[in-house]
Amino acid sequence: MHRSPAVIARADVPTVADDAWDEAFDAAVRSGTLHPLEASFARSLPLPRRATFMAGRQALRAALAELPADAVREVPILRTPRGAPALPPAVTGSITHKRTLAMAAVAPRVDRLQHLGLDLERRPTADDLRRPSIGRKILTAREYAFVQQWGEDTLDGREQVLVHFALKEAVYKAIDPFVERYVRFTEVELDLADATDVHVTLHLPEASVADVHVEAHWRMDGEWIVAAAYSHQ
Q: pLDDT tens-digit profile of 155-173?
């Protein structure tokens, strides 16, 4: 499978007291891990969202630092109307975060690469087995049959469901600029039978994705499942 040249970086989500945000933003700007306009935007966010926004932008800037275009790193990266990072046209990127960790991926728009999506999910634990599986809500009939070889209420089975979930979330981000709408879980079908390749089938009515090809892959990273998807046109 062709693998797009993405750079992935991470940043811990900080713990900041409610009355210490101005100091935290000022320190991030001084260190160069946050652009002044990004800090200004973050100050306008509700308190619970500031930490993940800051960590996401810090991870994004760390990833951008691995690309050759210095000018890309000097501009503020705010948000598109759809909530994605507003990167310069020559670069595509995506941010994902959970309560304690943020990750970002960037790639130059070379060849036919258009957009990328990244998703992060925590691997299941024994406590998760006490809750109903989300498998029937997010899997197509074929995907559900594939996952059943591990059993629906085993850790391995739950992990396979979350791998599908993470991949679908990444695919949604990679195709969102083409459709600009919420995509239902059953509108994207995955075939994970080949461990080295993820086959992605789009069941979408939009003509805008008729000639779009999506590649995807995933990996385990300690307690996390990390999934990435790339749309080509």
A: 999 999 999 999 999 999 9
pLDDT tens, residue by residue, 25-52? 999 999 999 999 999 999 999 999 999 9
Residue ranges covered by each domain of the chain: 7-110, 119-232
Query: CATH for 7-110?
Result: 3.90.470.20
Measured distance between the N- and C-terminal CA atoms of the chain, rounded to whole angstroms: 16
- Domain 119-232: CATH superfamily is 4'-phosphopantetheinyl transferase domain (3.90.470.20)
